[in-house]
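Hey, can you fold this one?
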Amino acid sequence: MGWQLLRVAIRSVFRTPAFALTSILTIALAVGMSISVFSVVNAVLLRPLPYRDAGRLAVIWSSSPNDSRGPVSFDDFEDWRRDSKTLESAALYSSYFKPILTGQGEAVRLTALLVSHQYFAVMQAQPLLGRFFVSAEDRDGPDNVVVLSYSLWREKFQSDPKVIGRPILLNSRPHTIAGVAGPDLRPLPASYAPDAAEIYRPVGEPFGPGSRDGRHLHTIVRLRPGVSIAQAQSELDARSAQMALEHPDVDSHLAARILPLRDDMTRSIRPALLALQAAVLVLMLIACANIANLLLARSSARRREMAIRQALGAGSGRLTAMLLAESVVLGISGGCCGLLFATWGTAGLAALAGRLLPDAGAIAIDWRVLLFSLALSFGASICFGLAPAWRLGSSQLEDALRNTTRVAGDSRNGLRRCLAAVQIGLALVLLVATGLLGKSLLRLRSVSPGFDPQGVITASLALPQARYRSEASVVRFHDRLLDRLGGLPGVTAAAMVSVVPLSGDFDRTSFEIAGRQLGAGEKQSPDRYIVSPDYFRALRIRLVQGRLLTQQDDANHSPVCLISETAARQWFPGESPIGKKVRAGAASGGFDRSPYREIVGVTGDIAQYALGLPPTPQIYMPYAQYPNRYMTLAIRTDSDARSLADPVRHTVLSLDREQPVYDVKTLEDIVAGTIATRRIGIWVLAAFALGALVLAAVGIYGVVSYSVAQRTSEFGIRIALGAGPADVIRKAIADALAMTAAGLASGMAVSYAISKWMLSRFLFEVSAGDAGTFAMVAVFLAAVALAACYVPARRAAMVDPVKALRFE
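Sure. Predicted structure:
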C-alpha cells in the first residue's frame, strides 16, 4: 500500500515538470543553505572535541574586579591544584615561546609550548620514546629538557629512535631531548594556541615558582570522573578565600572561575552562530510558504480530480495521505539536491571562516549533518504539504463536480495571501538584520584606530639571551638593524615596538605616580609599549603635547616616557602632565627598584584590543632605556608593504644568520582581522536575505498571477464596460497592496523584537530600532513587491473582453 502510494505520488509530481523543478530548486536552495550553516554549528558547537574524555576537560581563569577571564600565576595555580578533590590533573601552559633551533641544518623558528609537568596527563598522551616532564623540571635550571612533537621528530630528526638524550640548541642554549610525543597528542584548540606546538619545554622562570603576581599563564585541567563543574567551582571558591587570607597583598581580590573547555572555546562565537542558524531557518520557512502557495494553486486546478477520486470511494484520509506523499517526494528530492549544494557551501564557509572559528578545519558533512538534512527535508515536506490537505472539503469537492466546464475559482484565496504576507514579513526580518549589522560594520570601519595602518609591514624577532647576554648588546643589534632597514628602497620609517596594536597581544604594567597615593579605583594598569624613537612616525601617531622620543633618550640620559591622552586625563585631571614623574614596569630588583620616569609628551590614544572600545591608559618607554628581547618591527613604505617581506628577512639574516623573523604581516591585515568575523557574518546573512527576497518576490508574483487568472472574466467585463488599463491594474494589485502592507507591518514588529533580543550585542553606534534602516528596508521590499505584482496586473489590463466572456 505504501509503495503504491509513493509511486502514484512520484508520477503525479513529475507529470508537471515546471512545477516539480521550481519546487525542488526552491527547497534545494533553502535546505542547502541550512545544511551549510548547520555544518559549521555542528563542527564548532556540537561535535565532540578530538580529545579522550573531552567532556572532563576544563579551563581555569583568574577573576578580578577588572578582568573576569585573566591568566594565572604559577603559585596561585599550585594552591588551587594542590590536594584538589575535584581535579584529576591540572597543568599550566604558555604559547609565547618561539625558540630558534640551530645545529640541525638551517636555523628555524619553532612553535613551542611551555608546559607544567602534568600537561601530558591532562591531554592523556603517552610518550612514543623516552619520557615526559617531572615536577622538579617546572623550575628554572632543571627546565633545560624538551619533548619533541611527533611531526618535528619525523621531519627534522628523520624519525631517529636514538634521539633521546641528544643535546640540541634552542635560542643558543643547550637543551636535552627527554622524549618524543606520540601522534595521539592532539594540539590545543586554535583559540588557545594559534599554531600546533612543535616542541615542548617546562615552564621554568620567569613564570615558574616564586611568581605569585606574575599572571601570564593559561590553564587546562581534567576533572575527576563524576565531578561536575559546579563542584569544582565550589572547591576553588573555598581555596581562593583561604588564599586571600594567606596572601592579602596579592590575592585579596583574586578569585577563580572554571569553565568546560567547549563552553570557553565557543563563548564569543556561539551567539553569532546561533543567530545565523536562526536566520537560515527563517529562510527555510519562507521556502515552505512558497512551496505551500504553489501546492495550493496546483490543488485548485486538481479539485475536479480530487472530487472524482472521492466519488470513486477515496476517503479524506486517503486523499490527505496522497497529497502528503507528493509533498514528501518534493521535500526529499529537494533535500538531496540541497545536500549537493551544501557540499559546495560548506567548503566555501570553511574557507571563508579560516582561522576565525575554533575547529574550522573540522567543518564537514557528517552523520549529524545528514540526519539534520533528512529531518529538515521531511519536516518541510509535512509543513508545506498540510496546506493543500487542509483545503480538502466535501462541499468544495461537490462544487467542483458540478462545474464541468473549467476549474472552479478560488474566490477567497485567503490562505495563499496569508502565506505570501508571511513571506514578506520573514524576508523583512532578514533584510532588517542585514541592514542593521551592515550599518554597524560601516560605523566600526570608520572608527580611527589612532594610527595609519596603510603601507606598514610588521615582523617579530626574539633575541636569545645566550647570544645577547647584556642589555647593551640587545640595543646595539636593534640600532644596527633599524639603520639598515631604514636604508631599504621605498622605506620612509623603520621602528620597533614590544606590542603591536590590535594584534591580540598586550602588556599591562603596574604603575605609580611620584608623590601621590592612588586610591583603589585609580590603579588601572596601563598598556605598556617599549618603542624606538621613529615608532610614532612609522605609525603616524599624533603628538598632542610636549615632544616625542629621540635618539638621546638612551641609557646615558634621564629616564623618560610618553603617555596617552586618556592616561593624562585619568592621572592628571585639569593639569599638564609634562614634567610629572611616574614609575612603570619592574626592574631587575623588582618594581620598587624601577626608576621614576619624566613624562615628556602626550600622544593620541590608539586602539589596542578592538576597534570601538573605550581607550585605555597607555605609556611608552624608549627601548634604549628599557631593552626588550621580544620586539616587532614596524616599517612604513611608500609602495606595497607586502613587497618588503623578503627584504626584511634578508636584512635580519645579514646581521645574524641564526635570527629568522616570524609573524610577518601587514598592519592593514592585522586591523582588518579585528572585524573579519563581523564581515563574514554579514556576507553570509546578506546571502540569506537575498534568497529570502527572491523567494518572497516569487511568492507574491504567484499569488497575483493566480488571482488574475481566476478573475479573467471579471476584468473582461470591466474592460467591456469602459474601464481603462490603469483602472484594471489598480484593481488587480489592490489585494497585493493589502497583502504587502500586512506582511510589512508584522515583519516590522518581529524585526524590532528580534533586534532588541538577539542583535543588540552585535551593534556598534546603531540602535536596534534604527528608524532609517527600518524605513529603507520597508520601502525597498514594498518596491520589490509592487514590481512582482506589475507583470500579472499588466497582463490583466491586456485581457481581450470578447475572449474572456466567451471563456466564461
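The chain has a mean pLDDT of 81. Let me know if you want another pass with a different chain boundary.
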